[in-house]
């Protein structure tokens, strides 16, 4: 029964329609079951700033951008079980990693030993830790969204804060974006300065954050940095 409750909580959280009614429905359905209260409060945290940064070696370079913040930091799916409630209990949400116009990606799909692959309804969502089903909460808070094409997600859902468009953090992405006059040295410089700039920018919750970012992240001879600088926004 415990695994069934966990699966249903996850399934309801990831659906892309009228999430509030669904959230209430599974609560009423299972509230009298043993272990229910323990399950729905598991991992729930509260605080000023929430950082959601899925564990991925290719985005480890971003870690120092939030290392000095007094923040709740979530990096894996086990920590993110009951994510909606944790999001509600924070004033600001910072999200970073790899993503698409549909949300922030999460590589793993097992939570508390529960294999989600047998849930057909979850398969289309299994790679996302944050998608449109969380928009109702994100609309109520200032956010930071740093992933490829986050701008499309932000504009589509009318969210507000600091965010990026398509940004290059790997040489394969440079090739994909036809930024060809670059090498590993350029990429290393870009990633290092990107993190330093982001660290300062997220201290400022206003359009000025973009100017602060670009003052630090600036080398006109580095084609990756030239490309990325054009895709930093605030609204």
Task: From the structure above, extract its key features.
235 residues, 11 strands, single chain, 40% helix, 11 helices, Rossmann fold, alpha/beta
3D structure, described in words:
- 40% of the residues lie in helices and 17% in strands.
- The protein is α/β, with parallel strands linked by helices and 235 residues long.
- A six-stranded mixed sheet has the order 2-1-3-9-10-11, sandwiched between helices.
- Strand 9 (143-146), helix 7 and strand 10 (161-164) form a beta-alpha-beta unit.
- Mean pLDDT is 84; it is low at 15-22 and 109-126.
Rough outline: elongated
Main beta sheet: 6 strands, mixed
Order of the strands making up the biggest sheet: 2-1-3-9-10-11
Estimate nothing, just give the exact number of structural domains. 2
Query: What is the overall pLDDT average?
Result: 84
- Give the SSE order as H and E letters: HHHEEHHEEEEEEHEHEHHHHE
User: Treating each run of at least 4 consecutive H or I residues as one helix, how many helices?
Assistant: 11
Short recap of the structure:
The protein has 235 residues and is an alpha/beta fold.
């Amino acid at each position: 029964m415990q695994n069934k409750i966990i699966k249903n909580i996850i399934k309801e959280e990831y659906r892309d329609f009228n999430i509030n009614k669904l959230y209430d429905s599974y609560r009423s359905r299972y509230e009298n079951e043993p272990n229910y209260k323990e399950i729905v409060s598991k991992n729930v945290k509260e605080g000023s700033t929430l950082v959601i940064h899925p564990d991925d070696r290719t985005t480890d370079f971003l870690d120092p951008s939030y290392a000095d913040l007094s923040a709740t930091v979530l990096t894996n799916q086990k920590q993110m079980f009951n994510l909606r409630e944790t999001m509600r209990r924070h004033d600001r949400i910072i999200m970073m990693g790899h993503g698409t116009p549909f949300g922030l990606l999460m590589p793993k799909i097992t939570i508390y030993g529960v294999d989600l692959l047998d849930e057909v309804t979850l398969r289309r969502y299994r790679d996302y830790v944050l998608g449109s089903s969380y928009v109702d909460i994100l609309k109520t808070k200032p956010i930071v969204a740093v992933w490829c094409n986050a701008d499309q997600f932000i504009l589509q859902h009318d969210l507000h804060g600091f965010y990026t468009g398509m940004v290059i953090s790997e040489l394969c992405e440079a090739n994909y974006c036809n930024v060809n006059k670059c090498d590993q040295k350029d990429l290393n410089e870009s990633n290092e300065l990107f993190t330093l700039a982001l660290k300062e920018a997220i201290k400022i919750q206003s359009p000025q954050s973009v100017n602060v970012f670009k003052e630090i992240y600036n080398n006109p001879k580095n084609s990756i940095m030239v490309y990325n600088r054009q895709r930093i926004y605030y609204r």
